[in-house]
Amino acid sequence: MNQERLYNWTLEQKEAESIRIIKETLERFGTDKVATTFTGGKDSLTLLHLIKQACGGTVPVRVIQIDTSVKFKEIYDFVARMSKEWDLNLCVVRNEEALKTIRIAEDHVQCCYQLKTVPLQNAIRDFGLAALFTAVRWDEQEARQGEEYFSPRQNPDHLRVQPILHFREIDIWSYIRKYNLPFCELYRRGYRSLGCEPCTVRGGPGGPERAGRAQDKEKAMQRLREMGYF
């Protein structure tokens, strides 16, 4: 796959390719067997709006919010706002057992695995999903650079579908401006990538997009992804 060629597409071409992937997935599996993730961040917001475009103005699939219990209040408020305004079928999932014992942010890899990956895996099983949309991008994180649009996964078996791989950070903001989309106010305060509050700080301009994330976790991203993280 020629990523450089795709990066050079116009925003309209990138939108069209994303919508094609979304429609192909829904035609193959149906809306009951497909869900999308929504973190409250700019990328999953863009993906949600692309699903709306592909589906006549609605989001007809489950929208999974993984609640670690330590997200920023602004993120919780924004997800609640969008759920109401866009009439989302929001499904909030948590690992209640882990929350009773885990020391938040002490071991970033185990914390992410227990509080993000495990509830996501449980949701895929519980909802009987065949496919899951996620809003990862090639240019966002080194461990995601080799991803494909359609990626079979195990534990549990499902197809990970990633329709905005070819969007760059600048494309995301161009898309948000084009459609005048609301977005989480933390971005106005200098955050470029939103995670859990104990593990996220403002990222400086000009550096890596995820410079404000816990860097030991970033270095272990490939391992986390092999464990089921997106």
UniProtKB/TrEMBL annotation:
Gene3D superfamilies: HUPs. InterPro entries: PAPS_reduct_dom (IPR002500), Rossmann-like_a/b/a_fold (IPR014729), Sulfate_adenylyltrnsfr_sub2 (IPR050128). One of its GO terms (molecular function) is catalytic activity. Residues 34-201 form the Phosphoadenosine phosphosulphate reductase domain. PANTHER family: SULFATE ADENYLYLTRANSFERASE SUBUNIT 2. This is Phosphoadenosine phosphosulfate reductase.
